[in-house]
TrEMBL record:
One of its GO terms (molecular function) is S-adenosylmethionine-dependent methyltransferase activity. Keywords: Methyltransferase, S-adenosyl-L-methionine, Transferase, Ubiquinone. One of its GO terms (biological process) is methylation. The keyword Methyltransferase applies. It comes from Glycomyces harbinensis. It comes from the Bacteria. Residues 45-134 form the Methyltransferase type domain. This is 2-polyprenyl-6-hydroxyphenyl methylase / 3-demethylubiquinone-9 3-methyltransferase.
Length: 228
């Protein structure tokens, strides 16, 4: 079954392996963190936080890092990396309105059947003036082919069936839903650096940089502040 929630329980041992099947999530977390400004005494809510891969990138940046996920196995690991862990669904988060200075939705929206519900929840949690940071996969033929048809077949580095093509994110719908809740999004396409990837795959590099790319038709970041 595509997008099987049990997958994250079965693969719990993979989260923090830099060369495991979730390696790309580490690279994406680093790229996501670059969109988050330093703060003091601020709260960041990380929706679908998984095992807390964003945590090392927030160290010393002035945030209490609150992670919401429905995988208990992932949350236990997130907690061991300093994340205040909340077991729950991103469409019904047990946290107060406006509690967050920053809400992050990294590689989660393409796993959620109710895009409008997840966006509404993200924006509800955000205080006026707060920052929403998203990265996800676009609902396009190109993305289906690259991110599912091709990438999920790379042995050792990917998980077959992790994505359901029907849940890839319609960019216009994402922008419209965010706008409805007072957040004007800016979108930017990103891709892994090919040179870094080849070095990493050869066992030499430790990580792979994500670079901006002209199209948002595959993997993209989005960010915007909530209207005051
Ligand atoms: C691809 S992982 C991304 C994890 C993390 N954001 C990262 O980038 O490392 C997707 C995560 O979303 C969680 N998830 C999927 N659907 C969810 C839902 N409806 N509510 C809460 N968590 C969900 C999964 O358990 C998994 O940990």
């Amino acid at each position: 079954m595509p997008n099987d929630p049990g997958l994250y329980e079965r693969l719990a041992g993979e989260w923090w392996r830099p060369r495991g099947v979730f390696a790309m999530l580490h690279w994406l977390a680093a790229a996501r963190a670059e969109l988050i400004p330093p703060a003091r005494g601020a709260v960041l809510v990380d929706l679908g936080c998984g095992a807390g891969l964003l945590a090392p990138h927030l160290e010393g940046r002035g945030y209490a890092h609150v992670g919401v996920d429905r995988s208990a196995a992932a949350l236990r690991q997130a907690a061991s990396h300093g994340v205040h862990s909340v077991l729950g669904d991103v469409c019904a988060v047990p946290l107060a309105d406006g509690c967050a200075d920053v809400v992050v939705a990294g590689e989660i929206l393409e796993h959620v059947p109710d895009l409008a519900g997840a966006v509404a929840e993200a924006c509800r949690l955000l205080r006026p003036g707060g920052l929403l940071v998203v990265d996800t996969l676009a609902a396009t033929m190109l993305c289906r082919w690259l991110a599912i048809g091709l990438a999920e077949r790379i042995p050792r580095y990917a998980v077959r069936g992790v994505h359901d093509p029907a849940l890839l994110v319609d960019r216009d719908a994402l922008v419209a839903e965010c706008a409805r809740h007072g957040v004007e999004l800016t979108l930017r396409g990103i891709r892994p650096s090919v040179a870094d990837f080849l070095r990493w795959a050869a066992g030499r590099g430790e990580s792979v940089r994500m670079l901006p790319v002209a199209t948002t038709a595959v993997l993209f970041q989005a960010w915007g502040r909530k209207r005051v």
